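Hey, quick one: can you model this chain's 3D structure?
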Amino acid sequence: MANPTVLADQTSIRASRGERERGSDFSELSRRITEAGLLRRRPLYYSIRFGAVGTALAGGVAAFLALGDSWGQLFVAVALAVVFGQLALAAHDLAHRQVFSRRRPSEAGGLLTANLLLGMSYGWWMNKHTRHHANPNHEEKDPDVSPDILVWSRRQARAAVGIARFVGKHQAVLFFPLLTLEGLNLSFNSVKALRGPAVKRPVLEGALLAGHFAVYFGGLFTVLSPGKALVFVAVHQGLFGIYLGSVFAPNHKGMPMIEEGTRLDFLRRQVLTSRNVRGGAFIDALMGGLNYQIEHHLFPSMPTPALARAQRITERYCAELGVPYHQTGLLASHREALRHMRSVGEPLRAAR
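Sure thing. Here's the predicted structure for all 352 residues.
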């Protein structure tokens, strides 16, 4: 089920009367998932995973210091782009309390990973991501599909002005080149958000961000010549942005958009707007479990290693209900997303 469509205002998918009397469709799925033990914390898994990422980061820094002012540093930049992507996935899991059940250790881990190691505001991202989870692909309420440079529906395309109007015409072609700026964009928006209401601890977060930028740029321009340092930043941040985009774009882009006034229960709102990506252990590691996007949206605090089993339970349950459940390969997911982006930009191309 590839869905480059909008769920119209009149769309209202509800449980039958009998189902409502005995509880929501989601509560029954939740019962099955809980009985299977899939919401239990997995401390050994996260100890191994985070330990491996930390070791890779330390190895990258050691290689950087050992190589000195050399063009061989570009290989380090490529490796560290992957490490930064894995750090972002670690921060994501911490934010959803997949690692720790309590708020304080989750927040402490998130601040250290996001702010200090990545240069991204944990508070700003948490605010944004929480709103996304509550209303995925909602034209008015999901910040991930708010019209900015890119447009995600034909309604947004018709209202686009300025640079968004130009980019929207060609956004399917420009999408991956624009992703090279995503890492820098996250840092820029993080600094900007320190003066806004989304960040509850601006002094702490600002200090951690300042520490990150001081070490990152200070280290680069101390060890490398200015030219090599700039090239390192371009390669590292560009590939980091592409990696992040390649992980997050397949999850919802090209799935149905929800207009204001559309009524969907929790299960259908999450399932109909999300896409799973098949691929086995390699894709699981590459995407940090976010390839099980449907299950992640239904159970955000579920530890990553439990998602594969939850997927089988959820797919069978959706088949029982007759709820469309979409799963495809990684390349196919990107084709669907790009096809959707080209389709919604049609009003702008037609207006030339």
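One thing worth noting: The mean pLDDT is 92.
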